[in-house]
Write a structure and sequence with these properties.
The chain is 54% helix and 12% strand. The protein has 5 helices and 3 strands. It has a 3-stranded antiparallel beta sheet, with no helix packed on it. A hairpin with a 4-residue loop joins strand 1 and strand 2.
């Protein structure tokens, strides 16, 4: 869930074969229902049923992974991963920093209202 993959082949109306490639995105080649996919506008030219190496080279050539990393969607996924991997102390430091920022914002708003 939340990983980037490429549709390599269409099995029928409801199922497709997807591939990461595994070394790049961590997704192995497998069949997946279309319902579970969220499609993006990112595309690359590959033949039907392309091998993993062909797919990896096509993704590098078209710069698809770089384009993906620049999207807001990818940034949200990355932020969620970072937040999920925080330790208790890191979460505490984040809370304290948010409180300090909130106080500063309130002070500046109070000055502008006067």
């Amino acid at each position: 869930a939340g990983k980037m993959c490429t549709i390599v082949d269409i099995v029928d109306q409801k199922r497709v074969v997807v591939d990461g490639p595994e070394k790049v995105t961590g997704v192995r080649r497998h069949m997946m229902p279309v319902k579970r996919l969220n499609l993006t506008d990112l595309t690359c030219k590959i033949p039907k049923g392309a091998r993993e190496k062909t797919l990896r080279l096509a993704l590098e050539k078209d710069g698809v992974m770089g384009k993906w990393d620049a999207t807001a969607w990818a940034k949200k996924v990355k932020a969620k991963e970072v937040k999920g991997s925080m330790t208790d102390f890191e979460r505490f430091k984040l809370m304290v920093a948010r409180k300090k920022r909130s106080v500063e914002v309130k002070k500046s708003l109070k000055k502008t209202k006067k």
